[in-house]
């Protein structure tokens, strides 16, 4: 229903002075009926998402991800062992059953060190309820798949509620974002002892909570607490997920915070740059405290990773990434302060039969470190071109070729790959020949578009927040890409590029949400026709009575959600 506000009236003058946020908030404050309808729809969306995940995991036979022995670092802490363990077949097929077994000392952990991950909590939950499903053994990973599917459904429902879009556009964007998790590159980790399962679930909740935080002019303290909590859970799932903090921190600090005992956000009055900066910091003190907690937690977890991880990264960066792709390998070794004879170990791994087992390894260990390698690439930036190309190829592949997805004795060949849902992974493979056009355009274009939307004052807070999330996720994905290339390099690249693949796939849904925000910005704001500064408005005759939007139709606009 179109409202008409007479020119020269007090209502018109007040509207002219109002900010875009106030105008949008005045019209798009959801009614009880609107909120109730959105929540009912979200419940349906969540049930459908969980059902879709369960169907793609179990319908037609169970599929999952075989263990490359990384899963043992967690399952041993639950005092279980793979049923009928056969190291020769471990990579070829998935095994869902684990039996009771007590592990001692260095037989459990990572290189003799305890391996910490929030994925352990999901595994413990699966172990606790395995008997309820009637499965044999102490733990069955199919139960983990059910738990992850239910959590995925809950996170998808929360995402639907939080999106600042019209109902049908919420459904479309939520569906595209859910397709990234349903894809065979991602979903198979839900039936696996690997800690990617917790990271995936955490990422979906993080995305949903970021939209929930930015949808209003003021951030609610409870939303910030939950966002910080799910981000900590995600970061502590796997060391690779630390880059998600780059997307979350701007969202935490974007809005002033309203505490429960405040009727409105307090800030000192007055103008000026210094006072304005002080005011901006004061109204964000709770968010700053949570950001500090998140940063410190991330740093502490990165510092607690097993010491030999960095040793492995240095070795693989030289002998798996640098030397095999170098036109002058001996000269590179000399520049790194290493003997040219080390070139004979090119292509070897840390746990292989190369330099690791020779008397010269101490020389490598003492000489090579991360600052030395970074300074080398700074002097040879042309090497980054080839590195980027290898990284994009690995990202397109997205999953390790040496890990099977089917159980043994199901009629599938060893190392067979599931492709029940390969919509996005199939699209990535199609554009592989033009990867230098598609992926940089997607990454950097998303950053540019996101920042542009974030600075459009005429948009509602929720729509501008969509731009912040799009740009932040793009930056986090790029950071993840280069974190992989500068750590383990080409070693096991397809598997290590998983989170870059996932972040890039999520960008497709976020990009659609951003484009919808632009489309909505080009239309007159429902219920504000006649307000100066609004597109498509026609001033009414003086003395005409303002007509307010109908509550029954209010939900058809770009409401902020429930």
From TrEMBL:
Designated name of the protein: Uncharacterized protein
Transmembrane segments: 41-59, 141-161, 197-214, 243-261, 281-303, 436-455, 467-486, 498-518
Region of interest called Disordered, as start-end residue ranges on this chain: 1-24, 529-562
Domain of life: Bacteria
Keyword flag Nucleotide-binding: no
UniProtKB keywords: Membrane, Transmembrane, Transmembrane helix
Natural source organism: Streptomyces finlayi
